[in-house]
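Human: We require from you a protein record containing the residue sequence and its fold in token form, and nothing else.

Assistant:
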Amino acid sequence: MANNLRATRRQKDITQAQLADEVGIDVTTISDIERGKNQNPSWETVVRLARALDVPPEELFPVESLPTAESTATPGEAA
């Protein structure tokens, strides 16, 4: 997510401070996400960031990186 957020923000020519103001979160939160220090932001934060950047949340946090039923199933257990 870090690279996706940073790249999208830069493509939109928005600073971390501007994005933080628009989303209503602290600029350090955005910095932490972009640097990989916060690798698990809340879904609400992801959605708010996506709305502010006018992109789908999945663009910032790819769906394929989320655990699937198959990857979390216990061996021998149906997903």
